[in-house]
Backbone:
């Protein structure tokens, strides 16, 4: 008899990369022999609106036969909540441009894709363009910062409640617990101790496919946490 497939509880590297690329509001463009260009999108649009990724081997409409410029795009994924060690990941996308990048142009620059590299607590992962194109966007990524900020600012007591779901149970001495991340698969809490910290993953019962499903899934976690906090009493 075949074993049941295990439930996915956290995003795959391609999902993480896609979420960072589509939600990042800043990036650094580094071309050979040129000064780095800092791109900041302060109007609420994605930094990747300035770069259009294309298949390798000159599929982009502006790719010329020669003289391409090696370039890398650098992204830093920072937690929206001021936890200890806020940097969650780095993403580097390498490729080729047919002309030097200009940050002052309103038009998107075509870039021949090379590879994407994700660096986070799990190590380094390489992601291809095919993997990115086959990945469904996380419906939560664009609202993550607002949702976590609302949770901390308006319902901070609920974060402590969620600790009842942490496995293994948190060691004594937690000085602070804050949400580190939110995605379609669940919530990550950062537990801070004197001089160190530990992350706890609280998976949803079911992956979110639409943003309006995120709220009910969070409420389901809170309901489970309330039950876990009263093991000897039936809650209605």
Residues:
């Amino acid at each position: 008899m075949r074993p049941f497939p295990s439930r996915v509880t956290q995003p795959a590297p391609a999902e993480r990369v896609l979420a960072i690329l589509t939600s990042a509001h800043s990036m650094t463009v580094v071309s050979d022999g040129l000064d780095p260009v800092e791109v900041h999108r302060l109007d609420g649009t994605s930094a990747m609106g300035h770069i259009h990724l294309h298949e390798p081997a000159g599929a982009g409409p502006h790719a010329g036969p020669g003289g391409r410029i090696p370039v890398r795009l650098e992204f830093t994924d920072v937690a929206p909540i001021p936890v200890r060690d806020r940097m969650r990941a780095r993403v580097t996308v390498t490729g080729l441009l047919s002309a030097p990048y200009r940050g002052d142009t309103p038009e998107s620059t075509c870039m021949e894709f090379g590879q994407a590299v994700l660096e986070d607590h799990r190590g380094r992962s390489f992601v291809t363009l095919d993997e990115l194109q086959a990945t469904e966007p996380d419906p939560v990524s664009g609202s993550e910062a607002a949702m976590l900020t609302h949770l901390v600012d308006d319902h901070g007591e609920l974060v402590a409640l969620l600790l009842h779901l942490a496995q293994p149970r948190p060691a004594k001495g937690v000085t602070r617990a804050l949400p580190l991340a939110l995605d379609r698969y669940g919530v990550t809490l950062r537990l801070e101790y004197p001089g160190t910290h530990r992350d706890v993953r609280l998976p949803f019962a079911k992956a979110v496919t639409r943003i309006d499903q995120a709220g009910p899934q969070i409420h389901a976690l809170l309901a489970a946490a309330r039950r876990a906090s009263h093991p000897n009493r039936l809650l209605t």
Notes: The CA atoms of residues 16 and 118 lie 8 Å apart. Residues 141-229 form a domain with the Split barrel-like fold (CATH 3.20.180.10). The radius of gyration is 21 Å.
